[in-house]
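QA checklist item 7 of 12: single-chain prediction sanity check.
[x] sequence parsed
[x] length recorded as 73
[x] structure emitted
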Amino acid sequence: MDDLEVKDSNGALLKDGDSVTLIKDLKVKGSSVTLKRGTLIKNIRLTFKEDEIECNADKIKGIVLRTEFLKKA
């Protein structure tokens, strides 16, 4: 996974343990929760896809978010 480059919506390089901020309100499928724009998500984990990260946010564990909706904090 060393050659995998994961970038946020602004092109900043992301790595395991980084914090990111949502740039858009996102509805969570299978839940009534909506993650609001500006929500800080700490301690992200990279997946094997360059356009997705895994994280825990607002009582939801193991959620996968697309990097196009994130910016590095």
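[x] summary fact logged: Residues 6 and 14 are 5 Å apart (CA to CA).
[ ] second reviewer sign-off
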